[in-house]
Design goal:
This protein is of the alpha/beta class and 585 residues long. The chain has 2 domains: 306 residues, Rossmann fold (3-Layer(aba) Sandwich), CATH 3.40.50.620; 192 residues, Isoleucyl-tRNA Synthetase, Domain 1, CATH 1.10.730. The chain is built from 19 helices and 16 strands. Helix 11 crosses helix 12, helix 12 crosses helix 13 and helix 13 runs antiparallel to helix 17. The structure holds 5'-O-[(L-methionyl)-sulphamoyl]adenosine.
Length: 585
């Protein structure tokens, strides 16, 4: 029997991929943290669409979590009914995500009927399967995070919230409970074997450590009080018991299924049936990746997979929990009032371009296990190094030379004439003969990086190539050769070849950079008449071929071709003055 192949080897049938962000509370407006996780998911989704090409089957979901107690409380503080406050803030999230250029396929709000009815059906299914039962509960409740903590965790944190430091409350309730302990062995096996991959590795160890401390039943409902501050119909009532409302976390997690519970989307959740590759659970089984920060990993890596297991559905493939953006060493919080606001990101985008903001967040952000500080000086440093003096300068330099020496068109060259540069002879030969292997290797690294959510290192490959081009140009010195080319066909061919090689390398670099900087790279492709996109005017129009084909060096397919017009234009990124003040919102 043939070995099953990874779908990345089957460009005809890419596997479906489903990327999600947390659904965010609408008690307030969005800030950098919400934009960051959604950016990470956007870059992952864009990279997947590029890697898989025109047949890519990617679904990217984000949205808002609206039935939380804190939404009701903050609505009251603003003198508004909860739904109006939720409407207003959900719109702010939508506006912020539009500004950030996110390519989500849907934005779900938990107050929508499509969510409420389906979430109720999922809970009913859990009840039918005996996974949810009524019981008494006394526990330490963290009102700032809307969750109960175990006695051990409460004690360890001095009866304060481990996330916000606010005091915990002792609460007793008669609730419905989900029997989490029943799944303990299964969870441990799934996580240890990476059937559910928890990334980064440090987070996996933490989760396993916490499972070892023992699992508690999870409250699934709250009794609706007579003086309940929430209006009637707020939230999802417990199936068969209208006196209880489904606890917000349990309801919220269901969004990952409720949003795709339609015939066209159902295959984004794998199902355990196997068989037909076109059907969920077949050979083309969907890969589900949940992105979030470390604050909510327990819900996604433990409670949610256990709920799915109880329902007889497969668990998500990957749970990726990044660290935090912090401000001057402290977690950003409402009480400290130290959030990096969207208006501040807008001010940076106005000055440096949106793609520069996306680049900075992606490459300098807390993607791994360590928190990151947003620092203006670092922003300018990275902007100048990677963008203005990096891809921006390199593309200008090469376009200008092609314009000056060859009238703005990729020139023909005789490949049998070796490039013989007096000074750096040996390097040039090596560089020219080895490039196809390099590029195949880089494409593999990029695909691997994306599979492991090492998105920053995948993006970095683009800059590595730019650095090679800079080195190549300073070694081969096309500007000096140009002076000697008059009437010498051999030198003329060498010059054409050097510029072809440089431009072609930059074209490939731009593909690696694209997921973080879609607008700027689409702009470059328009200037250079590269036909990567189905519609060159629309950077969201989809790719004409999978990355491995687009990134073929000089093969005549999607590569630059002799005669191709290279339009020079304004620099992609203007240099920034590090002495200037930060842009103010
Ligand atoms: N509503 C729940 C999630 C339900 S998912 C089924 C929730 N909402 S939240 O509005 O508090 O969002 C938390 C998420 O926002 C974090 O997991 C992270 O994705 C993002 N961030 C919030 N602050 C952040 C930072 N300071 N830094 C990075 N990301 C942060 O929890």
């Amino acid at each position: 029997m043939p070995e099953p192949t990874d779908s990345t080897d089957q460009p005809d049938m890419p596997r479906p991929r489903y990327f999600t962000t947390p659904i965010y509370y609408v008690n307030d407006r969005p800030h950098i943290g919400h934009c960051y996780t959604t950016l990470v998911a956007d870059v992952a989704a864009r990279a997947a669409r590029l890697i898989d090409g025109p047949k890519a089957d990617v679904f990217f979901l984000t949205g808002t979590d609206e039935h939380a107690e804190k939404v009701v409380t903050s609505a009251a503080e603003h003198g508004m009914p909860p739904i109006e406050w939720a409407d207003l803030n959900a719109q702010r999230f939508k506006d912020a995500f539009a500004f950030m250029g996110f390519s989500h396929d849907d934005f779900i709000r938990t107050t929508e009927d499509r969510h409420k009815t389906r979430a109720a059906a999922l809970i009913a299914d859990l009840m039918d399967k005996g996974a949810i039962e009524l019981g008494d509960y006394e526990g330490w409740y963290d009102p700032s995070q809307e969750e109960y903590l175990t006695e051990t965790v409460a004690k360890e944190n001095d009866f304060k919230s481990p996330v916000t430091g606010r005091p915990l409350e002792k609460r007793t309730e008669q609730n419905y409970f989900f029997d989490l302990p029943a799944h303990e062995d299964w969870l441990r096996a799934q996580i240890e074997s990476d059937a559910i991959r928890i990334l980064p590795e440090a987070r996996k160890n933490e989760v396993l450590g916490r499972i070892k401390q023992g699992l508690n039943r999870v409250p699934v409902s709250r009794r609706i009080k007579d003086d309940d501050p929430a209006p009637e119909g707020w939230g999802v009532t417990m199936p068969g018991d209208p006196e209880h409302r489904v606890y917000v976390w349990i309801e919220a997690l269901c969004n990952y299924i409720t949003a795709i519970d339609t015939p066209e989307r159902a295959h984004y959740w794998p199902n355990s049936s196997g068989g037909d590759p076109l059907q969920p659970g077949g050979a083309g089984q969907s890969q589900v990746t949940h992105f979030m920060a470390k604050d909510i990993i327990w819900f996604h890596a433990v409670i949610w997979p256990a709920m799915l297991h109880a329902m007889g559905r497969p668990a998500p493939s990957t749970v990726y929990a990044h660290a935090y953006w912090i401000a001057e060493g402290q977690k950003m919080s409402k009480s400290l009032g130290n959030f990096i606001e969207i208006d501040q990101l807008r001010a940076y985008a106005d000055k440096f371009s949106l793609d520069a903001v996306r680049w900075y967040l992606m490459t300098q952000g807390p993607l791994g296990a360590t928190d990151s500080d947003f620092a203006h000086s670092r922003f300018v440093e990275v902007y100048n190094a990677d963008l203005a003096n990096g891809i921006g300068n390199s593309t200008s330099r090469v376009s200008n030379m092609i314009d000056k020496y060859f009238g703005g068109r990729v020139a023909n060259f005789d490949p049998s004439v070796p490039v013989e540069i007096e000074t750096e002879h040996a390097f040039v030969e090596v560089e020219l003969t080895n490039h196809p292997t390099h590029f195949a290797q880089w494409v593999r690294e990029s695909v691997e990086g994306c599979d492991n959510c090492n998105l920053a290192s995948s993006l970095r490959l683009g800059i590595t190539i730019v650095e090679r081009v800079d080195q190549f140009i300073s070694d081969t010195r096309p500007f000096s050769i140009a002076k000697k080319r008059e009437g010498d066909a051999r030198i003329e061919s060498q010059l054409a070849m050097i510029l072809f090689y440089s431009a072609e390398m930059l074209r490939i670099a731009s593909l690696f950079l694209y997921p973080a900087m879609p607008e700027k790279m689409a702009d470059l492709w328009r200037r250079w008449n590269c036909d990567h996109l189905n519609d060159p005017a629309d950077h969201n129009s989809g790719f004409k071929a999978p990355l491995a084909e687009l990134a073929q060096f000089g093969d005549g397919g999607y590569s630059l071709k002799p005669g191709q017009k290279i339009t020079k234009g304004d620099a992609l990124f203007m240099r920034a003055d590090p002495k200037e003040d930060p842009p103010s919102a």
